[in-house]
Amino acid sequence: MSDEQTLPAQHQTEQPGSETQMQPQPESINEYYQAARKLEGLVAIVTGGDSGIGRAVALHFAREGANVAIVYLDEHDDAAATRDQIHAMGRGCLLFAGDAADKDFCKGVVDNCLAEWKRLDVLVNNAGEQHPQDNLEDISEEQWEQTFRTNIFAMFQLTKAVLPHLNAGASIINTTSITAYKGNATLLDYSSTKGAITSFTRSLALNLAKRGIRVNAVAPGPIWTPLIPSTFTAEKVAQFGSNTPMGRPGQPSEVAPAYVYLASADSSYVSGQVIHVNGGTVVNG
Protein backbone atom coordinates (compact mmCIF):
# COMPACT_ATOMS: atom_id res chain seq x y z
CA MET A 1 0.00 0.00 0.00
CA SER A 2 1.06 3.59 -0.56
CA ASP A 3 1.21 6.06 2.33
CA GLU A 4 -2.30 7.25 1.46
CA GLN A 5 -3.85 3.82 0.87
CA THR A 6 -5.70 2.46 3.89
CA LEU A 7 -7.78 -0.32 2.32
CA PRO A 8 -7.83 -2.58 -0.74
CA ALA A 9 -9.64 -0.88 -3.62
CA GLN A 10 -13.20 -2.25 -3.87
CA HIS A 11 -16.73 -1.26 -4.80
CA GLN A 12 -20.24 -2.64 -4.36
CA THR A 13 -23.01 -1.73 -6.76
CA GLU A 14 -25.99 -1.64 -4.38
CA GLN A 15 -26.74 0.13 -1.10
CA PRO A 16 -26.85 -0.44 1.81
CA GLY A 17 -24.09 -2.89 0.92
CA SER A 18 -23.13 -6.33 2.14
CA GLU A 19 -20.63 -6.94 4.92
CA THR A 20 -19.77 -10.39 3.59
CA GLN A 21 -18.33 -8.86 0.40
CA MET A 22 -15.96 -6.48 2.22
CA GLN A 23 -12.21 -7.03 2.38
CA PRO A 24 -11.03 -6.89 5.05
CA GLN A 25 -14.11 -7.75 7.09
CA PRO A 26 -15.13 -5.00 9.53
CA GLU A 27 -14.48 -5.71 13.18
CA SER A 28 -17.79 -5.71 15.06
CA ILE A 29 -16.48 -6.58 18.52
CA ASN A 30 -12.91 -7.20 19.61
CA GLU A 31 -11.44 -9.79 21.94
CA TYR A 32 -10.40 -7.18 24.50
CA TYR A 33 -13.90 -5.84 25.18
CA GLN A 34 -14.84 -6.59 28.78
CA ALA A 35 -18.58 -6.62 29.39
CA ALA A 36 -19.95 -5.71 32.81
CA ARG A 37 -23.66 -6.56 32.37
CA LYS A 38 -24.43 -2.84 32.06
CA LEU A 39 -27.65 -3.54 30.11
CA GLU A 40 -28.77 -6.70 31.88
CA GLY A 41 -32.42 -7.53 31.09
CA LEU A 42 -33.01 -4.44 28.94
CA VAL A 43 -34.61 -4.43 25.50
CA ALA A 44 -33.13 -2.37 22.66
CA ILE A 45 -34.20 -1.60 19.11
CA VAL A 46 -31.35 -0.88 16.68
CA THR A 47 -32.03 0.36 13.15
CA GLY A 48 -29.49 -0.57 10.52
CA GLY A 49 -28.46 -3.32 12.92
CA ASP A 50 -27.71 -5.91 10.27
CA SER A 51 -24.18 -4.68 9.59
CA GLY A 52 -21.63 -1.94 10.18
CA ILE A 53 -22.04 0.30 13.20
CA GLY A 54 -25.52 -1.06 13.85
CA ARG A 55 -24.29 -4.65 14.01
CA ALA A 56 -21.48 -3.66 16.36
CA VAL A 57 -23.93 -1.84 18.62
CA ALA A 58 -26.31 -4.79 18.65
CA LEU A 59 -23.51 -7.23 19.53
CA HIS A 60 -22.12 -5.01 22.28
CA PHE A 61 -25.62 -4.56 23.73
CA ALA A 62 -26.13 -8.32 23.72
CA ARG A 63 -22.73 -8.85 25.34
CA GLU A 64 -23.91 -6.43 28.06
CA GLY A 65 -27.06 -8.48 28.65
CA ALA A 66 -29.73 -6.86 26.45
CA ASN A 67 -32.20 -8.47 24.09
CA VAL A 68 -32.07 -6.74 20.72
CA ALA A 69 -34.50 -6.10 17.89
CA ILE A 70 -32.82 -5.31 14.59
CA VAL A 71 -34.54 -3.16 11.98
CA TYR A 72 -32.98 -3.27 8.53
CA LEU A 73 -33.83 -2.77 4.87
CA ASP A 74 -33.13 -5.92 2.85
CA GLU A 75 -29.68 -7.37 3.62
CA HIS A 76 -31.16 -10.59 4.99
CA ASP A 77 -27.93 -12.59 5.10
CA ASP A 78 -26.12 -9.93 7.14
CA ALA A 79 -29.11 -9.63 9.47
CA ALA A 80 -29.29 -13.38 10.01
CA ALA A 81 -25.56 -13.52 10.77
CA THR A 82 -25.97 -10.79 13.38
CA ARG A 83 -28.94 -12.60 14.93
CA ASP A 84 -26.95 -15.83 15.10
CA GLN A 85 -24.12 -14.09 16.95
CA ILE A 86 -26.57 -12.59 19.43
CA HIS A 87 -28.20 -15.96 20.02
CA ALA A 88 -24.74 -17.45 20.60
CA MET A 89 -24.37 -14.97 23.46
CA GLY A 90 -27.56 -16.32 25.01
CA ARG A 91 -29.66 -13.23 24.25
CA GLY A 92 -32.86 -12.84 22.27
CA CYS A 93 -32.99 -11.20 18.85
CA LEU A 94 -35.86 -10.27 16.54
CA LEU A 95 -35.41 -9.22 12.90
CA PHE A 96 -37.63 -6.72 11.09
CA ALA A 97 -37.04 -5.99 7.40
CA GLY A 98 -38.75 -2.92 5.98
CA ASP A 99 -38.99 0.83 5.66
CA ALA A 100 -38.55 2.53 9.04
CA ALA A 101 -40.05 5.71 7.59
CA ASP A 102 -43.38 3.90 7.33
CA LYS A 103 -45.59 4.55 10.35
CA ASP A 104 -47.39 1.21 10.20
CA PHE A 105 -44.14 -0.72 9.90
CA CYS A 106 -42.77 1.05 12.98
CA LYS A 107 -45.92 0.25 14.94
CA GLY A 108 -45.51 -3.40 13.99
CA VAL A 109 -41.92 -3.43 15.23
CA VAL A 110 -42.94 -1.96 18.57
CA ASP A 111 -45.96 -4.25 18.98
CA ASN A 112 -43.90 -7.37 18.27
CA CYS A 113 -41.14 -6.34 20.66
CA LEU A 114 -43.65 -5.74 23.44
CA ALA A 115 -45.34 -9.08 22.74
CA GLU A 116 -41.97 -10.86 22.97
CA TRP A 117 -40.29 -9.01 25.84
CA LYS A 118 -42.98 -6.88 27.58
CA ARG A 119 -40.75 -3.79 27.70
CA LEU A 120 -38.66 -1.30 25.72
CA ASP A 121 -35.65 0.51 27.17
CA VAL A 122 -33.29 1.72 24.46
CA LEU A 123 -33.81 2.99 20.92
CA VAL A 124 -30.84 3.39 18.59
CA ASN A 125 -31.71 5.32 15.42
CA ASN A 126 -28.76 4.39 13.22
CA ALA A 127 -29.95 3.55 9.68
CA GLY A 128 -28.83 5.86 6.92
CA GLU A 129 -27.96 6.25 3.27
CA GLN A 130 -25.76 8.59 1.23
CA HIS A 131 -25.27 9.36 -2.48
CA PRO A 132 -22.37 11.64 -3.42
CA GLN A 133 -22.84 14.23 -6.16
CA ASP A 134 -20.29 16.78 -7.34
CA ASN A 135 -22.80 19.62 -7.73
CA LEU A 136 -26.05 20.66 -6.11
CA GLU A 137 -27.62 20.70 -9.57
CA ASP A 138 -26.85 17.00 -9.89
CA ILE A 139 -29.03 16.09 -6.90
CA SER A 140 -32.52 15.18 -8.03
CA GLU A 141 -35.58 15.95 -5.95
CA GLU A 142 -36.07 12.20 -5.65
CA GLN A 143 -32.59 11.69 -4.18
CA TRP A 144 -32.98 14.63 -1.79
CA GLU A 145 -36.32 13.37 -0.52
CA GLN A 146 -35.17 9.76 -0.25
CA THR A 147 -32.09 10.68 1.79
CA PHE A 148 -34.21 12.72 4.18
CA ARG A 149 -36.81 9.94 4.34
CA THR A 150 -34.25 7.32 5.34
CA ASN A 151 -32.04 9.42 7.60
CA ILE A 152 -34.45 11.66 9.54
CA PHE A 153 -38.09 10.83 8.67
CA ALA A 154 -37.52 7.24 9.81
CA MET A 155 -36.01 8.54 13.03
CA PHE A 156 -39.14 10.60 13.67
CA GLN A 157 -41.53 7.73 12.93
CA LEU A 158 -39.81 5.06 15.02
CA THR A 159 -39.14 7.40 17.94
CA LYS A 160 -42.79 8.42 17.93
CA ALA A 161 -43.87 4.77 17.93
CA VAL A 162 -41.50 3.78 20.74
CA LEU A 163 -41.92 6.81 22.99
CA PRO A 164 -45.24 5.89 24.69
CA HIS A 165 -43.60 2.68 25.94
CA LEU A 166 -40.40 4.16 27.39
CA ASN A 167 -40.16 4.79 31.13
CA ALA A 168 -37.89 7.03 33.16
CA GLY A 169 -34.32 5.86 32.75
CA ALA A 170 -34.78 4.92 29.10
CA SER A 171 -32.35 6.12 26.46
CA ILE A 172 -32.62 7.23 22.84
CA ILE A 173 -29.37 7.34 20.85
CA ASN A 174 -29.16 8.81 17.34
CA THR A 175 -26.36 8.40 14.83
CA THR A 176 -25.33 11.74 13.40
CA SER A 177 -21.98 12.32 11.64
CA ILE A 178 -18.83 14.38 11.48
CA THR A 179 -20.33 15.84 8.29
CA ALA A 180 -22.89 17.72 10.40
CA TYR A 181 -19.97 19.70 11.84
CA LYS A 182 -17.41 19.84 9.01
CA GLY A 183 -19.72 19.60 6.02
CA ASN A 184 -18.88 17.55 2.95
CA ALA A 185 -18.62 18.99 -0.55
CA THR A 186 -20.13 15.95 -2.27
CA LEU A 187 -22.61 14.78 0.41
CA LEU A 188 -24.89 17.81 0.54
CA ASP A 189 -28.16 16.02 1.26
CA TYR A 190 -26.57 13.49 3.64
CA SER A 191 -24.78 16.21 5.61
CA SER A 192 -28.00 18.20 5.82
CA THR A 193 -29.84 15.25 7.33
CA LYS A 194 -27.07 14.77 9.87
CA GLY A 195 -27.38 18.41 10.89
CA ALA A 196 -31.10 17.83 11.33
CA ILE A 197 -30.38 14.75 13.47
CA THR A 198 -28.08 16.74 15.72
CA SER A 199 -30.73 19.41 16.24
CA PHE A 200 -33.44 16.79 16.71
CA THR A 201 -31.29 15.13 19.39
CA ARG A 202 -30.75 18.36 21.33
CA SER A 203 -34.38 19.47 21.11
CA LEU A 204 -35.84 16.07 21.99
CA ALA A 205 -33.50 15.84 24.97
CA LEU A 206 -34.95 19.09 26.31
CA ASN A 207 -38.48 17.92 25.58
CA LEU A 208 -38.10 14.58 27.37
CA ALA A 209 -35.97 15.62 30.34
CA LYS A 210 -39.03 15.99 32.55
CA ARG A 211 -39.96 12.38 31.73
CA GLY A 212 -36.55 11.05 32.74
CA ILE A 213 -35.72 9.88 29.22
CA ARG A 214 -32.25 10.78 27.95
CA VAL A 215 -31.51 11.57 24.29
CA ASN A 216 -27.97 11.69 22.93
CA ALA A 217 -26.08 11.06 19.71
CA VAL A 218 -22.84 9.65 18.37
CA ALA A 219 -21.06 11.39 15.49
CA PRO A 220 -18.77 8.90 13.76
CA GLY A 221 -16.01 9.94 11.41
CA PRO A 222 -14.83 7.54 8.69
CA ILE A 223 -15.83 4.05 9.85
CA TRP A 224 -15.33 0.88 7.77
CA THR A 225 -18.91 -0.23 7.08
CA PRO A 226 -20.76 -1.61 4.01
CA LEU A 227 -22.03 1.89 3.24
CA ILE A 228 -18.49 2.89 2.21
CA PRO A 229 -17.78 0.48 -0.67
CA SER A 230 -21.41 0.77 -1.78
CA THR A 231 -21.14 4.59 -1.90
CA PHE A 232 -17.70 5.48 -3.24
CA THR A 233 -15.49 4.44 -6.14
CA ALA A 234 -12.86 1.78 -5.59
CA GLU A 235 -10.16 4.45 -5.78
CA LYS A 236 -11.77 6.55 -3.03
CA VAL A 237 -12.37 3.49 -0.86
CA ALA A 238 -8.65 2.71 -1.08
CA GLN A 239 -7.86 6.04 0.63
CA PHE A 240 -10.79 6.03 3.04
CA GLY A 241 -9.88 7.53 6.42
CA SER A 242 -6.38 8.60 5.36
CA ASN A 243 -7.19 12.29 6.06
CA THR A 244 -7.84 11.75 9.78
CA PRO A 245 -5.17 12.60 12.38
CA MET A 246 -4.84 8.87 13.05
CA GLY A 247 -4.40 8.24 9.33
CA ARG A 248 -6.88 5.36 9.09
CA PRO A 249 -10.59 4.54 9.16
CA GLY A 250 -12.15 3.36 12.39
CA GLN A 251 -13.72 -0.02 13.00
CA PRO A 252 -17.36 -0.44 14.11
CA SER A 253 -15.98 -2.03 17.29
CA GLU A 254 -14.34 1.30 18.11
CA VAL A 255 -17.65 3.18 17.90
CA ALA A 256 -20.05 0.79 19.62
CA PRO A 257 -18.78 1.28 23.20
CA ALA A 258 -19.95 4.91 23.00
CA TYR A 259 -23.49 3.61 22.47
CA VAL A 260 -23.13 1.25 25.42
CA TYR A 261 -22.13 4.19 27.60
CA LEU A 262 -25.09 6.29 26.46
CA ALA A 263 -27.53 3.38 26.88
CA SER A 264 -26.37 2.51 30.39
CA ALA A 265 -26.77 4.13 33.80
CA ASP A 266 -23.14 5.25 33.52
CA SER A 267 -24.44 8.25 31.55
CA SER A 268 -27.36 9.04 33.86
CA TYR A 269 -26.47 12.77 33.92
CA VAL A 270 -25.82 13.03 30.17
CA SER A 271 -28.50 14.20 27.73
CA GLY A 272 -28.58 16.37 24.64
CA GLN A 273 -24.92 15.58 23.92
CA VAL A 274 -22.94 14.25 20.96
CA ILE A 275 -19.95 11.94 21.35
CA HIS A 276 -17.42 12.33 18.51
CA VAL A 277 -15.68 9.12 17.48
CA ASN A 278 -13.69 10.27 14.48
CA GLY A 279 -10.01 9.42 14.67
CA GLY A 280 -8.92 12.63 16.34
CA THR A 281 -10.55 15.37 14.26
CA VAL A 282 -11.46 18.35 16.47
CA VAL A 283 -14.82 19.84 15.47
CA ASN A 284 -15.64 21.99 18.52
CA GLY A 285 -19.26 20.85 18.48
UniProtKB/TrEMBL annotation:
Which InterPro entries would you find in this protein's record?
NAD(P)-bd_dom_sf, Sc_DH/Rdtase_CS, SDR_fam
Q: Which Gene3D superfamilies match?
A: NAD(P)-binding Rossmann-like Domain
Q: What CDD domains does the database record attribute to this sequence?
A: SDR_c1
Q: Which Pfam families match?
A: adh_short_C2
Gene Ontology molecular function, alphabetical: oxidoreductase activity, acting on CH-OH group of donors
Source organism, top-level taxon: Bacteria
**What NCBIfam families does this protein's entry cite?**
PRK06701.1, PRK07231.1
PANTHER family to which the protein is assigned, alphabetical: NADPH-DEPENDENT ALDEHYDE REDUCTASE 1, CHLOROPLASTIC, NADPH-DEPENDENT ALDEHYDE REDUCTASE-LIKE PROTEIN, CHLOROPLASTIC-RELATED
Q: Which family does it belong to?
A: Belongs to the short-chain dehydrogenases/reductases (SDR) family.
How is this protein named in the record? NAD(P)-dependent oxidoreductase
Q: Which species is the source of this protein? A: Pseudomonas turukhanskensis
Q: Which taxonomic lineage is given here?
A: Bacteria, Pseudomonadati, Pseudomonadota, Gammaproteobacteria, Pseudomonadales
